Each structure stands twice: as C-alpha cells, then as structure tokens.
Amino acid sequence: MRSLCDFESFVIYSDVLNKEVEHLSENFEIYRFLLHKSSENLAREHNFVAIRITLQQTVFSNIVISLSKVFEKSTPYNPYNINIRKYLNGIKDNLDEINARIKDKYSNDMLKIRKKDLKKDIDKLSELELDIEKLKIYRNKVLAHLDEEYIISGDFGSEITYYRMNLLFEYFIEVIPKYSTLIGEYIINKSNETESKREIKNLMSSFN
Q1: Who has greater pLDDT, 160 or 55?
Q2: Helix, strand, coil in percent for the chain, rounding step 5
Q3: Rounded Cα gap, residues 112 and 110, in angstroms
Q4: DSSP assignment letter at 192
Q5: How high is the pLDDT of residue 1?
Q6: Which residues, 6 or more positions from 116, have their beta carbon under 8 angstroms from its beta carbon?
Q7: Which of 42, 41, 20 lies closest to 203 in space, CA to CA?
Q8: Cβ neighbours for 37, distance < 8 A, ≥ 6 positions apart
Q9: Which residue has the higher pLDDT, 71 or 207?
C-alpha cells in the first residue's frame, strides 16, 4: 500500500482535501436549504415539488459519493486513492519533518501540529467506522450498482440517515482544515452563500 513520505505529497493531499471540504460544504448547505424549504411546506406547486425532489436526490447522491470517497480505506486493489486515513496517518509518521517545514514556511515557532490533537482525531475516526461502512455499502449497492439482495431485503437505504451523514461531514470539515491549512496552498472558500446555492434560492423563489 502506497504511503506518503515527502512534504510535497502532503501539500498536494492538503490541497485536494481542502477542495473536497469546499465541495462537501456547498452540497450540505444546499441539501439543508432544500430540507428546510420542504419542512416549511412551501412546495405546493406540483412542478416545484418535482424540481425540489430531483435536486434533493441529486445533492444527496453527491454527498454520499463524496463522503465515501474521502473516508474509504486504501486497499491492495486501490492503493493510490487520496483519503483521510492515509493523510492523518502519514502526518503522524512524518510529524517532526512536517512541523519543521511548517516552521520554515511561516517563520513561526508557535505554528505546529500537536501530537495529542492528531491522536485524538485519529481515534475519533476509528469511532466512526460503522457509519463509514454503512455509507460505503449504500454507495456500492445502490449508487454504483443495483444489488438485488440488498434492495429486496427491505433495508434499502434505511440506515443512511441525515444524522449519520452529518456526523461524517462535521468530522471531515473540522479535522481536515486543522492540518491542511498549515500544510497546503489552497484556501478554502468559507462563504455559505455560494453561486450554486444562490441559483437554487432564485429558482425556488420564482415558485413562491
């Protein structure tokens, strides 16, 4: 299994994962917005109901695929995928060198990754294993393929709840920037009012 071993690789990983934070944040903002509008019962027009449901299903699928992608373990069959486990474990294995490069980069002795914080985040990842596995099963058996046994069982997607997705999302967007903003070059857009969300809000307002 391929491992990270040089600072330049960590910079690339950091920038890729930062973009995933941005992408997931945008999709979650849109998904929450659509859920909120649904709960307000503003979707009384038949045409809008169809549009909202389609948008909601599309964004839901995007979230499941994105979360599965960043949490999926590397395997002998897929050793090169970029994922949060490889990233955090790579930082742990190269912590002294990475902190030395961060110090040189910012000319600041106080900026560094702390071993106890890193251990806490890695331990928390282990606690999320069941949620990650359920997400992976749904991705594989529903979105990537249509698994007959899984779908006929009647449990089809029942365990992929908003709560479970939100646990993984909140962990990912909290943990990744903690390290990637020190190591990488890509700056995350933290604005909640993204172009995609503005377009959807404008579309929805035209039906009110």
Answers
A1: 55
A2: 70, 0, 30
A3: 6
A4: S
A5: 42
A6: none
A7: 42
A8: 43, 52, 204
A9: 71
The first and second tokens of residue 111, run together, are 């900026």
Q: How far apart are CA 81 and CA 204, in angstroms?
A: 37
DSSP 38-101: HHTT---SHHHHHHHHHHHHHHHHHHHHHHHHHHPPPBTTBTT---HHHHHHHHHHTHHHHHHH
Q: How far apart are CA 84 and CA 176, in angstroms?
A: 8
- Note the pLDDT of residue 51: 76
The pTM assigned to this predicted structure is: 0.84
| DSSP element (H, E) containing 22 | helix 7-39
Indicate the residue type of 190. Answer: K
Cβ burial, residue 50 (10 Å; 0-12/13-18/19+): exposed
- Model confidence at 82: pLDDT above 70: yes
Structure tokens belonging to residue 29 = 């903002």
Q: Collect all residues with Cβ–Cβ distance below 8 Å to 69 and sequence separation of at least 6.
A: 20, 81, 83
Report the interhelical angle of 115-127 vs 84-93 (nearest 10°): 150
The number of residues making up the chain comes to 208
Residue that the structure tokens 């914080």 belong to: 117
What is the C-alpha to C-alpha distance for residues 42 and 201, in angstroms, rounded to an integer? 13
